[in-house]
Amino acid sequence: MTEPPLRAELPPPTKMLTGRSVYRVVWKLNTDVLVGYCWCGESHEDVDPIALWDWLLAHPATHDPAGGAR
Amino acid sequence: MPSWPLNQWYVAAYSQEVGDDLLGRTICNEPLVMYRTSEGEVVALADRCVHRRFPLSMSNRVDDSIVCGYHGFTYDKGGQCIAAPAQKRIPRTARVPSFVVHEQDSFVWVWIGDNERADTALIPRAPWLDDPAYTTVRGMEPLKARYGLLVDNLLDLSHETYLHGGYIGTPEVAETPMTTEVDEEANVVYVSRHMADAECPSLYARSTGIDGRITRWQDIEYHPPCLYLLHSRIAPVGVLPPEDGPDDQAFHVEVVYAITPETEHSTHDFWMVARDFALDDQEISTFLAENNRTVVLQDVTALDVLETVVEGEKDHYQELSINIDTGGLAARRLLQKLIAQGEAAPVGETAGAGDVAEVAVRAPAEPVPTA
Ligand code: FES
Ligand SMILES: [Fe+2]
Ligand SMILES: [Zn+2]
């Protein structure tokens, strides 16, 4: 198994939705890496979309309750 | 429990389908009869006579009432029985359920759930379908497959190359990064693929007058459960939508699907293609209609097969998901969330919507192979 390419090779996400709590995942076709962005700004990369969604959906649980949006 | 969310709006018909005649159609396992009253208002009632269940859609319209074609029970537009043969007193319980409907954007939307919870402000919009600045072609195909298979199919544009080879794919598509967005509050999935510099298909070159290469955007916007929008934007290279004001330097093709469950194993596949250029060009209308119908039928054929496969498989069959499924997984998860919310008791009980947001989209999975 080769190392996935560096995140820096992927462009920032296209932002079309304007809501407060929008998760984003960027994928360049023909590469295996996905980069996910929580609405709080944190990002995470993975090569499995299910694992990445799990990370994104779990992320609010780790937000500072005082500063988070929920 | 049904596999679709309750307490949601679903497209029951195109407005143009509902007129003086009685239209029978099953929506989310509810057999409905629809018609338009003399005042122009659309009525949707349960399509079963309370007497011996004869379908009202196979009965007769008399003024704004339906007279059952079996023994003549007569129902007003609210579903109340107002006459029965040779009978002076009509039992007060003699009524068929009436459904809340709302016409908007060339659709008849029906609320499937508790009538008191119906809120027309929740209906997602597709305004170009009913806008003189656009020309729309449309159709509807019956699908012998569960609605979830059509959702999976439409959220994944990568099957274009294989299932629709030669019809919609272009070489730049495979090179373009894709962003999947999920708005957790508004319940929207958005998949964008923005090609900065692409070849212009010749038909579009002719009809738009664009000469040279184009900026081509293909954006999916899914409002679960029913409305799917594919925004296709074509502009000369480098021309982006203005910060404010209309995006009038670009040409738009809006492909719309309404994904309405009929039963657990069948779906109404409504499809439309609207455009804001060459409005009177019959050749383009014919091309867009025939091309899209071909593509829809290719999907219908594949999904009809898939339905028989899914029905025949053992429980807990393990699917494998890869990166192309990112948008589809997001859509499935929002559907699960809406299903849980739709079943939750509306008032007085404590089932909180917050509890249901974390429904997992997977059973334990095998790892995805990587290169
Ligand atoms: S079944 Fe309708 S009147 Fe008898
Ligand atoms: Fe398709
Ligand atoms: Zn976060």
TrEMBL record, chain A:
Tell me where on the tree of life, at the top rank, the source sits: Bacteria
This one is known as Uncharacterized protein
**Annotated organism of origin:** Nocardioides terrae
- Classification of source organism: Bacteria, Bacillati, Actinomycetota, Actinomycetes, Propionibacteriales
TrEMBL record, chain B:
Name the PROSITE patterns on file: RIESKE
Q: Which residues form the Rieske domain?
A: 9-110
Database matches in SUPFAM superfamilies: Bet v1-like, ISP domain
GO MF annotations in UniProt: 2 iron, 2 sulfur cluster binding; metal ion binding; methyltransferase activity; monooxygenase activity; oxidoreductase activity, acting on paired donors, with incorporation or reduction of molecular oxygen
Gene3D superfamilies noted in UniProt: Naphthalene 1,2-dioxygenase Alpha Subunit, Chain A, domain 1 (3.90.380.10), Rieske [2Fe-2S] iron-sulphur domain (2.102.10.10)
Q: Which GO annotations describe the biological process of this protein?
A: methylation
Q: Which InterPro entries match?
A: Cholesterol_7-desaturase, Rieske_2Fe-2S, Rieske_2Fe-2S_sf, VanA_C_cat
Task: List UniProt keywords, sorted A-Z.
Answer: 2Fe-2S, Iron, Iron-sulfur, Metal-binding, Methyltransferase, Monooxygenase, Oxidoreductase, Transferase
**Record's protein name:** Vanillate O-demethylase monooxygenase subunit
In its UniProt entry, the species of origin is given as Nocardioides terrae
| Organism placement in taxonomy | Bacteria, Bacillati, Actinomycetota, Actinomycetes, Propionibacteriales
